[in-house]
Amino acid sequence: MTQWRKSSRSADTGQTDCVEVARLPLAVGIRDSKAPDAGHIALSHVTLASLLSGIKAGTFDL
Where is the DUF397 domain (predicted)? Predict the structure, then answer.
């Protein structure tokens, strides 16, 4: 069974709309905590690292 986790900081804000992540056999799963039955995306570890680097660098800021 896949164990989904969300940030412990989510509880501090009272927000229920959070991203959840899970370790999958060959990837990392990401899903919306408000709609867990809607499915998830799976990213390789390399792709997730690249995405997080881009987020931290502001690459995706609008």
Answer: 2-56
State both tokens at 45. 């570890």
Question: What are the structural domain ranges in the chain?
Answer: 19-57
Residue 53 sits at the vertex; the CA angle it makes with 49 and 59, to the nearest 5 degrees, is 135
Q: What is the pTM of this model?
A: 0.76
Query: Is 31 exposed, middle or buried, given 0-12, 13-18 or 19+ CB atoms closer than 10 A?
Result: buried
Question: In angstroms, rounded to a whole number, what is the distance separating the alpha carbons of residues 41 and 27?
Answer: 10
